[in-house]
Amino acid sequence: MSTMEETIEKLKVQIIEQLNLEDVTPDEIDADAPLFDSDLGLDSIDALEIIVMLEREYGLKIQSKEEGQKIFYSLKTMAEFVTEKIA
Amino acid sequence: MRTIVNSDIFELVDFGVAGGESLNQRLKSAYRDLDIKYPKFYKMDTFCKVGFLTMEHLMIKAPVSFDPAKTGIFLVNQYSSIDTDLAFHRSYSLHEESLASPGLFVYTLPNILIGELAIRHKITGEHGFFILSDFQSDFIYLYVKSLLDSNVLDAAILGTCEVFQDEVLCAMKLVSSASVLDESLSFDLSKFKEWIKKSPQGR
Q: What total of structural domains would you count in chain A?
């Protein structure tokens, strides 16, 4: 498993835990699908929770709304951001 | 944890914690027992979970149909959302490196419970959450009666919800303009008050 795949799987678990998505399993999250326009039903508070999670778990800060929109497009874009920053 | 629901009969719904089960685990079990699909439940704080479950039981047992647009929700308690307020405070004050949880912060107001109930049941009538030093049935009685008498509302959900650590007390009742308000509403609210006083979990 590549670093990117490992990061995606780790983020899936962290998001499920952080957002209390108890009826969701990691396998059910499509890493390429839009994160905030999907069956996950995430809202703006969930976005804030993910921002806090990224800062707490990885020490990463989202610098602007525009950057956030790109990073949070999908789990894959989020994993790319994390992988790039912590590499 | 215990709640009471229903319009005419006060029925005790026992969500009691037993066998080493935590309150949160018990609430999740109670949710699953309802066999409904509402994932937002898992995101709620304990206060809203308790109120949500009580309302679900009330809706199952409600003997009268009601128009959500002309139905209000009026809740009263003494301690506001203190359990969640303290949890939120702990979430960022115990460890300096901790960041406050936005998901928890949004529940640090008791009227969020009314919002959750209104969203779930599409209720859009007037509503209010009153923090009072006592469960003042006369106040609620006069308030809701005036709204029903003036046809602002056709029905109202009345009740109380208190949560502190593992102590839980929640009571809800549906009244309508078809009810014999002068007697039944006053009587039933008094029953709420009596029940709360008699409850070992009451304050």
A: 1
Q: Which two tokens stand for residue B156?
A: 């109202």
A28 at interface of B, judged by CB pairs closer than 8 A: no
On whether residue B172 sits in a domain, the answer given is yes
CB proximity B24 to A under 8 Å: no
Q: Which structural domain, as residue segments, surrounds residue B141? A: 2-198
**Residue of chain A whose Cα is closest to the Cα of B41:** A20
Q: Does the residue B39 lie in any domain?
A: yes
Q: What is the pLDDT of residues B79-96, one digit of tens each?
A: 999 999 999 998 888 666
HSE (side-chain half, CA atoms, 13 Å) at B130: 18
Query: Is beta strand B2-5 parallel, antiparallel or unpaired with respect to B11-14?
Result: antiparallel
In a domain, B85, yes or no: yes
- What is the end-to-end Cα distance of chain A in Å, rounded? 16
A55–B42 C-beta distance less than 8 A: no
CATH of the domain at B187: 3.40.47.10
pLDDT tens for each residue of A28-74: 999 999 998 777 888 899 999 999 999 989 999 999 989 999 999 99
Nearest residue of chain B to residue A19 (CA atoms): B43
Q: Do A21 and B42 touch (CB under 8 A)?
A: yes
From A73-87, B34-48, B141-155, B183-197, the region with the lowest mean pLDDT: B183-197
